[in-house]
Amino acid sequence: MMIVPYLVALVLLILSPPPATSSTANISSLIEALGPNKLCSVYDPFKVLPENNKFQIGGSFPLHQDDCTTLRPDTVQEIVAIQWALTHWNQKDENGDCKLGLYAGDTCSRSAESLSQSLRFLDSVGYHEPKECRTETPGAKLLGLIAPKDYESSMSLGKFLSVSAIPVAAYSSESVNALTELDVENTIATSPTIGVYVEALIRLINQMRSNLVTVVDDGAQNPVVKKVISYLRDADIFVSESIPIDHPFLAQALEDSDSSIVVSVLNKQQLLKTVKHPSIYAMSKMWISIPTEGEALDESEQLELLHKDAKLEVVSLQPKYKELPQFRDYFIRVLRNNFKNYQLLTSYIEQVYNCTNEDCNLNKDVMMKTYVQARTAEASIRMTYAFAAVAQIIGANKEYEKTCSHASSECTELIMETLETMDYAFNKQDPPEFAGERLQFYRGTENILLASGMQVEAIEIYNQDKEPVTSRLLSFTTGNPPTVIMSSLRSADQRLRSICAPYRPFCGQCPNLQIVNSDHHFLSIPRHYPLYLVGLFDLHSGQTCQSMAHTDISLPMAFVHTVWTFKQRFPQLGLLKDLDFGALLIDSCSSGKQAIESVVRSETQCFRFNQAGRNITIVPKSVFGYASALHGDSQESLKGYFSSGDTDASLVSVDSEHSALQRSFTALPSSRNQALALLKLLNRMQWQFVTAALSEQDPESLSLFRAFERLALDRGVCLAEVLNIGGSRLDNIRSTTNVTIVFSTARDAADYLIASKIRGNHVNVMMGEAHDWYLHAPNNKELFPGTVSVQPRNILYGDFREWLETTTPLTLPELWYWSYIESRYGCALSQKSKVIYGKMCTGDELLNIESLGRMTKAGYLSRGVERFLFAMDSVYKSLCPAQNGLCLEFYEQGRRQILTQLKKTSTEDDVEIYEFLPDINNHFTYHLIANWTLTTGLRMTNQYRNGNGVPTESKCQPPMCKCFLDGDFFQRPLDSFVFRPDEPEGSDQSSYIKRQPAFGSEKIEYQSVFEHITTGHWRDHPHNYVLLALITVLVVVAIAVLVLVLVKLYLRVVKGNQSLGISLLIGIIILYSTAFFFVFDPTDSVCRLRVILHGLGYTICFGVMIAKATQLRNAETLGFGTAIHISFWNYWLLLFFIVGVQIALSISWFLEPFMSTIGVIDTNVQRMMCTMGKVEFVVSNFYVMILIFMALFISMLNRNIKRNYKETKWLLYSTVLCFFTWVAWITLYLVLDHEFRDTVIVVELVACATILLGFLFGPKIYILLSYEPVVVAFKRDPFPNHTDLFEKDDDLPSQRAVSPASSTSSSSNRSSSGSSYTSSSKRPVNAVGPLPLNKNVEDQSPIFHTVMRKKTKVRRSNSEHDTIMNVGIPMTSVPIIRSPSARDEKVHRVAISPPIRDYNSINH
Fold first, then answer.
1. Counting beta carbons within 10 angstroms of the beta carbon of residue 464, is it exposed (0 to 12), middle (13 to 18) or buried (19 or more)?
2. What dihedral do alpha carbons 376, 381, 386, 392 form, nearest 10°?
3. Which CATH class is domain 196-324+454-495?
4. Stretch (H or E) spanning 483
5. 422 Cβ partners below 8 Å, 6+ apart?
6. Which site from 383, 593, 735, 1080 is most exposed, i.e. has the minimal number of CB atoms within 10 Å?
7. Where does the G-protein coupled receptors family 3 profile domain start and stop, copy by copy (predicted)?
């Protein structure tokens, strides 16, 4: 129907300058002028041009549906609203130079026509006119283009505008979304955008003190959803996941989500349909709706939204429309007065009010009640006034008007800047609904201009007593800044918080993701969990990780079964209440490298894998523990990583090697405990002479054998030989003893038993996996009755075995389990595997439980996981007392405290002993005969019965027991692991079995000291020869000094107590001797002597120096009197205590079981080396460091004491040099590589010992060698002028105590040579002033005394000496020398008591 011309006529009349009469009369006159039957094409554009029009806006409007006949009433309202706003603007007198016109074209809701009509409008204003064709007096100036309100048409127009500089205005949410999606510049929005809704949402979520939401979208990959998520993340609000509305398990996915807040990005129809579903409204969550099309829920829709039984709370973010009553009256008046005469209004009446032209009797009140204002009417009026205000500003400025005379990028920039700075105030001549408001624009988050004054409100809808209740939570008004009015939250809403837990992948922890192989990662019950317990298993093997031939399926099944049933097994304990965690299985493909990579990845990186159609993301630190059932080297490598301390997570394993570093934990009894139980049994049964059969390729068997060999010899069991079994070829083999202990896998044990010759009195003892040998020899098991097995106690749960017996692929839909069933049965459980196997499984396939054997490891893996979960429960209850889910403290401290808890757990030590015998039904099976624990020892529950009835003894009888005579296990604990390169003579070269004695294999330690010196690897380094020569020379020098002192003592040249000096010389000799041990190759004894002698030698040296320095300090403080005497034994007690502490510390090194081990230099060279690390060696000398600091401190205090040839000076020099030597060697020792560390120690020992020998003994040796004693007559000098061997001491006190430092005379010496005091006055002989003479002194004075003179000086007779010596009472405490100025010849004289005082004093 061609009705557009009627609309054109209507609009032309409305936009013409109105007279003073009513506007309705103007419309009627124009309609009458055009006539009702003048039709034109529906696509013909129309213009509304007021008189003297200078500015123009226009665009395309979807006036009809895509059939071009059905009218869209809301678009009619929008065009009339624009006309109504222009009428108010153009009729103002002050707007005569800025009147605004409208260009409109119908698109029939078609995107192609939208672009066509827009281009027509641009052509009408000369936008595409070449510059050469432009006139100086152009028509109306282009201010902007109006975008169509529907999404598709705006997308079509936006692609054109993305390369054009035209201001474009959007008055609907759909058009704004389309233009922002295409990043169209110069966009003006008068309708709330997605950014506005999200900004209001952020304010609401912050008020609720939450930061985590789940997003529900329409599933169409709408860019709006991505934009919403991006805005939320920029505001530090995390999105747990985005779920499409058509998800088959939408309700379950929302329930499993961590978030208590759901944000939907849907239109109104999708929202109403979703929240009315029973599975949705039954959730106790908050649902916040963002309208994608800007639609609002009216009051009736709000009340009907929720079911009466709904627990869901809905918050609708929706625009708040301004009521326009003046426009309503105007619009209804136009309809009532003109609908009978004009087809456009007739069509509107027929479509909206469902009446024809003949029978329509419209009542104004009825029309007003049924009137519904278009939701974009307000936005279209704001848009019109925005352009009108810009026209007013440009029209008032000639320069601006000239810039915009033609459409250009400069004019566009001017228009946008004008809009951004504009502040228009509505007055009384404008629409009265906007009176008092101001129209402004600002840059929003989408980088477009947003109109201020747009309102968005949050309406909460919930049930109270099964009745719907609505309340407004928030009112958000756009602006810069926006106006936000918040309502107080209900108590229920305050409790409903949605906090993003740490270590969640969606909580900002994963900027980079690593995608891992989904075929190697299996999450039991796949969904996101806050915590994970990771199990590492060797599910596959081989180069391509495809084979499951050696898979022990009981281990992963024990892991998942324990996790699933842990809470149910102990219901009375309330374990891990409201704490949810996932069990993640990782297949290491029997590769230690992949196992470590998996753990390191879990600790340091975010990784993702797909399972059951869901992307599972694991973030660092969310794995609270690891359970490992790896084998061999893979397990050792993994334990090494955990022992390094790089992670604070715990490792639960099922190996028998217990970690000394306490970072990996196992419930399995240790190899040592199992070996002790075995040895107790062997001694009880008198089986002391045994043979070992070892699977050398199996690390677990090797570990058990290593523990047994370490303990056997010390506990009276002789290991005669070791049979290394392995490979695939079998030949007859016979043990040389009556008892064979089998350390091997079950298959190797079966092969060995079959290959060995059956003897009636021979007993086989199975260790480890060898227990299940009968599974691989089902037809020969009756041939070996009486076989003994020593195993950890069976702790497997009965319900676990029952579960294994009934489990099928249908009841356990785990991919790793399906792979095992497919491999065992040769059929497929999935279409992917059907290509490989060619046939499908039934799904009822069961496990062969008998083929799994005893399942010892499965039981102890389950026990270890239970211990970990108990520890986690204890920490959880401690850190989260409320137990209502995870708390932040548990995330931050949980792993470390779990590790601490596991360190406190005890280790299993129960061992059971079985005998393989037939039962009452003649079926061979194991029967329990004994058990062993550390506390109770071996307890026999049944008597051992040899299956053949022949008693078995295997005692050690010479000469067969050579191992007791020659075997030195403690010196060579690892010898038996290095096999002989050649086979013994007479061995069968076709056999895979190697025979070797328990001792005497390839050399690791040396058989003698001579061999050690002559064939050691130390000879590979030439500098060692230089060091040996130097050390030898210095040792000889030190011994020579010691001999010299002893000779002088014997000749009475040196008298007194010389024990301290001799002790110091012994300490120096020990230091020199210790250097030898750091040159030669390390052995167990050498390593012990290294650490013990190094500290002991230094302790003796610095202990003597501390005692000597203390003596000198006391001598200076107490003086030389004899009234107060300090016993010499006080200093010896000090020295004994210092050395005793070091001896006590050294005892621990004697108790170390092994001080050496095998180090691998390269792939072909192995060397013995000390087990002590570099840091441990430095720490072992910490006590010596303390002594150095003490000696240095006392020497610094004594630095000004000048006694005994300035002895304190030499003490200080030697201590300081030794201190810097220690600083240097410790630094180099910690920095240099291993091959240079021993050389550093040798240099350090030689340097310090030489410093002490040179500084402390050098001056004294010079005196001993340069002077000789001479006996002369003693004469008394009443006025002596004594000069000390030291520098002269002035102002000596009148009375001082005697100190060992000042007098080295013994009591006998004093009695023979005279007292130091006179009998009458008791005045000291070294007092200043004349010495009174009396008879007692004369009677007690000696007749002869000894003086020292240089050997090179020629002396005359004693008469000459008489002329120069005039001494009264001898000074027994201090040796003196005659001053050179007093006599021409130097004569040194000392008292008989200490002939050489300076030497005595230094050696005390």
1. exposed
2. 160
3. alpha beta
4. strand 483-486
5. 386, 389, 390, 393, 439, 440, 441
6. 593
7. 1022-1265
CA distances from 1108 to 179, 443, 1212, 1329 (A): 95, 87, 12, 32
Q: How far apart are CA 618 and CA 514, in angstroms?
A: 10
Structure tokens at 1164: 């072909």
Tell me if 922 sits within 8 A of 781, measured CB to CB.
no
What pLDDT, on a 0 to 100 scale, did the predictor assign at position 376?
92
CA distance 1184 to 1178: 10
Query: Which candidate, 210, 235, 206, places its Cα nearest to that of 495?
Result: 210
State the average pLDDT for the chain. Answer: 78
Q: Which of 561, 536, 534, 523 has its CA nearest to residue 631? A: 536
SS3 1349: strand
CATH entry, 46-192+330-451, from 3.30.70.270, 3.40.50.2300, 3.90.550.10, 3.40.309.10: 3.40.50.2300
CATH topology of domain 515-668+798-807+847-903: Rossmann fold (3.40.50)
User: Tokens at residue 44, please?
Assistant: 């013909």
| pLDDT score recorded for residue 1367 | 39
Pairwise CA distance, residues 991 & 1081, whole Å: 38
Q: Model confidence over 909-930: pLDDT tens digits?
A: 899 999 999 988 888 999 999 9
In the chain, what are the helix, strand and coil shares in percent, each to the nearest 5? Answer: 45, 15, 40
Residue 724: pLDDT above 80? Answer: yes
Query: Tokens 């000048």 sit at which residue?
Result: 1202
Supply 747's token pair. Answer: 């298959």
List the single range of 1-5, 176-180, 287-291, 434-438 with lowest mean pLDDT.
1-5
Q: Cite the beta strand spans of 1302-1395 per DSSP E.
A: 1344-1350, 1376-1377, 1388-1389
Backbone angles phi, psi at 166, to 5 degrees: -130, 135
Residue spans per domain, the chain: 46-192+330-451, 196-324+454-495, 515-668+798-807+847-903, 671-792+909-940, 810-846, 1019-1172+1237-1267
Percent of the chain with pLDDT over 90: 30
- How far apart CA 550 and CA 538 sit, in angstroms, is 9
The CATH class for the domain spanning 671-792+909-940 reads alpha beta
Strand bridging mode 141-146 / 55-61 = parallel
- Token output for 243: 């779920």
Instruction: Pick the range with the lowest mean pLDDT from 250-254, 732-736, 1063-1067.
Output: 732-736
Per the rule left: phi > 0, alpha: psi between -120 and 50, beta: everything else, 35 is left
Identify the three-state secondary structure at position 1228. helix
Q: Do domains 196-324+454-495 and 671-792+909-940 have the same CATH topology?
A: yes
Q: How far apart are CA 1256 and CA 1236, in angstroms?
A: 30
Lowest model confidence (mean pLDDT) among 619-633, 1026-1040, 1242-1256, 1260-1274: 1260-1274
Task: Quote the Cα angle for 153-155-159, to 5°.
Answer: 120
- The pLDDT, as a whole number, for residue 730 is 61
At 262 the pLDDT is 95
| In the block, residue with structure tokens 């290491």 | 588
